[in-house]
Every structure is written in structure tokens, then in C-alpha cells.
Amino acid sequence: MDPRAISKIKERLEASKSPVALTGAGVSAESGVPTFRGPNGLWKTYKPEDLATPEAFERDPFLVWEWYNFRREKIASVSPNPAHEALARLEASKPSFTLITQNVDGLHCLAGSRNVLEIHGSIWNLRCVECGNSSENRDVPIGILPRCACGGLLRPGVVWFGESLPEDIMNAAFEAAEKADFMMVVGTSGVVQPAASLASVAKRAGAFTVEINTDSTPLSDIMDERVEGRAGEILPVLVTA
Ligand code: BJW
Ligand code: ZN
Fold it and tell me: Rounded CA gap, 100 and 179, in Å?
């Protein structure tokens, strides 16, 4: 960690009136939740077009549910890590802080964050494909195929490729990015749209931008500062107890 970069980021964060964080799978990696891309990512073993599209669910809901059951079991067995905890502390000390996450695991909420925009939904929500009714379900394992009271098939309440993101949540995320004077982008490969564009929106609006990632990403070029390393080691230094 470059101490000059760290103290500059801390200064900017402390002075910030409207800080925003955009998080991705890398934030939960140290909890033991697999990321999507990279050498040990889910997409190395599983094909997104077979498991994370509405067409895949129509074709083979059983296969898709088996995969989500496997992931729900994994997530249910892990706990928030120091990165989640630091972001929860940041919210407690700065009520204007907005946390935007692409993660569906619910670990930010479990760490104590209250104001979380889950733009890709939640693996703990189920939605009926017939009546659209949505409800929380934490059963692990879940009996497949789960059905709604109306008889319709229930699907995971997450956003698959080719699907629109929840409009109200996405509007709130874009509004926060436009107002942000500080944006940190943590543990995301920055390749999935429209999530990744939130960083560019904040940058264009004049925010001080910071990337925390073990690797560089397509977003690295628009960052004012980058800290290369693990979120669970860096965030607790930026947001001290
Ligand atoms: C660490 C670390 C540690 C590791 N510390 N760092 C414009 C251009 C091009 C394409 C499109 C576009 N607009 C739309 C698209 C299509 C598509 C898309 O973006 N495709 C690209 C991949 C090319 N987007 C969509 O389809 C979206 N919908 C949409 O745009 O609708 C509009 C529309 C609708 C209808 C008609 C027309 C338009 C929906 C995207 C949904 C994404 N869904 C998933 C699955 C969610 C459900 C589930 O979990 O099962 O979301 S895919 C997957 O990727 C998941 C994630 O949220 C998302 C992002 O991944 P993330 O978080 O960045 O993780 P990784 O694994 O990629 O990266 C981890 C990072 O952490 C790495 O950088 C590591 O280095 C780092 N790291 N350990 C810090 N300890
Ligand atoms: Zn229903």
C-alpha cells in the first residue's frame, strides 16, 4: 500500500459530503464467495448462457435452480469480512454515504449496512414468473422447483444477462453517482453494464475516483487513485474504527 495514496484517499473521504461506493464480487471473495471472472471465477466452470439468462431458465429451470441452490448453500455458510464491515462503519459515520452493490449475496446487509442499492437483486429473493410476486426465502437447500401460491414457478430474484435492472434502484444509483464527490469502486471487473457506467458518471460529474482491486480493470484509466490489493485489507485502513 502506497502511504501517500492512502493518506490522500482518507483526506478526500473525510472531506466528502456525498461519498459513494460501487462494489462487486471481489468484496465477498475474502469471505469465500467465488467471483465470476478470473482464474477461479464461476464463469471458468459454468457458462453464463446456460445459467444466468431468462432463456436458460425457460429451457431448464431445474438446472438453473440446482446452480442457485449450490450458491445459496455456499453463501449461507460464510460471514461478512473486514471489507463489508468497513463499509458498514462508513455508513454509520457518514449518513450521506450510498452503497451500490452488484453482489446478490446479502453480505453488506449482514455486516450492518442499511442503505444498500442491490442493483443485481438478491439471491435470497424469489419472484413468481406468472404473477410477479416477490418474497424473501432463506431456505437452504430450497426444494426445487419452488412454486408461488398462485401455482406459478418461482425464480431467483436476481438480474440475468439481457434483463433490465430494477428501475427504481437503478435511478437511485445513477442519482447518487451524479451527486457523488467521492466514488470508490471496489472488487469489480468493471465489464458488466450498466453497473460499470456508474463510475464514469461519477467521474464526469467531478467526483474523486478511487479503485480498490487486486488487478487493473477497464475502469482503472478513469481513476484518480488506485490501490492494488485486497479489499479486506485496504478498506479497514481507509475507514478506521
Ligand atoms: C478483488 C479481490 C479482493 C478479486 N479484493 N478485489 C453495453 C456494452 C456491452 C454489453 C452490454 C451493454 N449493455 C448491456 C450489455 C449486456 C450485458 C453486459 O454487460 N455484458 C458484458 C459482460 C459484455 N449486460 C446486461 O445484460 C445487463 N442488462 C442490461 O443491460 O439490460 C438492458 C437491456 C435489457 C433488455 C434489452 C436491452 C437492454 C444485466 C447484467 C446482469 C449481470 N448479472 C450477473 C449475474 C447476477 C446473478 C447471479 O449472481 O447469479 O451479475 S453476471 C455477474 O457479473 C454478476 C455480477 O454482479 C456481475 C459483475 O461482476 P463483478 O462483481 O464485477 O465480479 P467479477 O468476478 O467480474 O470481478 C471481480 C473483481 O474483483 C475482479 O476485478 C478481481 O480482480 C477483483 N478481486 N478478489 C479486491 N480480495
Ligand atoms: Zn405467483
Answer: 14
